[in-house]
Automatic annotation (TrEMBL):
PANTHER family to which the protein is assigned, alphabetical: ADENINE DEAMINASE (PTHR43114)
Protein name: Adenine deaminase
Organism expressing this protein natively: Novosphingobium olei
Keywords, alphabetical: Hydrolase, Metal-binding, Nucleotide metabolism, Zinc
Active site: 199
Binding-site positions, Zn(2+): 16, 18, 196, 277
Catalytic activity, EC: 3.5.4.2
Entry binding sites for substrate: 278
Domain Adenosine deaminase: 12-322
Amino acid sequence: TDLDRFIAGLLKAELHLHIEGSLEPELMFALAERNGVTIPYASVEDVRAAYAFSNLQDFLDIYYAGASVLLTEADFHDLAMAYFDRAAADGVRHAEIMFDPQTHTDRGIAFAAVIEGLLSAMAEAEAKHGLTSALILSFLRHLSEEAAFETLAMAEPWLDRIAAVGLDSSEIGHPPSKFARVFAAARAKGLKLVAHAGEEGPPAYVYEALDLLHVDRIDHGNRALEDEALVQRLAGEGMTLTVCPLSNHKLCVVGDLADHPIDHMLAEGLKATINSDDPAYFGGYVADNYRAVARARGLSREALVQLARNSFTGSFLPPEAVAMHL
Ligand code: ES4
Ligand code: ZN
């Protein structure tokens, strides 16, 4: 349709993407075979059938299990290259991708294998598609502050290749305050800061991300809408929210995509963006997210253009590179 073509042709940045969440079932099987790893699924259809979640934790259990097929630098390269090829086809010109080193180093995989595999795919994506990218090292919030500090220490030799640190995994019970000191350390090293907040957690966690972590972006932020003063503050500060419509639907953050608040966010003056989060698990890449929410909410072309603009102005690209994309 016209809308599909318009969305595919809209040049965009993707700011909220977990690279481990782009592991398609077909690649999961191929890597399981290549590496002699056993997975608890008989077929690709069997894997897809397991992707029915009632909350974030349901999903995370399956997502961490899926990552067990990733062992070598080549695996991380192939994973990221598959994502970049798919993103380029969706009109993505710049991607800021999160990776969860602890998911791998806790299984005995070298940090170097993870990051070197991702970096070589990033260079290849730029050469092949002109798609630029940046890395966000994300701490697992269900693990300790000490473990996050150890992960930051492991990253030390590559800090000039890492744009930001992030905070993901099980939100409730693991507030941003738990990571205030490690975020301060990352900030002192010149890294940008992002954190998942207000996906399942209360508005108080969004306040903590702002006041205790001093984040540059909020990942998700849906539940900020419950607090009008917080909405006014986020809008006034021009804080970017990396919203993920299909994720919100699959994880029951919203009951129905027809009730997704993306247009309310824009109407409140919030700097919202559209992203895919974990596309292999949530049923679509970034253009699918634009299409699904545009149809469900009847978004105007102006709104879609605004969302795409926000993705560049909310990115960590230098101002001259942002200007080039607008
Ligand atoms: C995630 Cl959707 C989501 N929320 C929190 N942590 C995550 N890790 C990967 N996807
Ligand atoms: Zn996420």
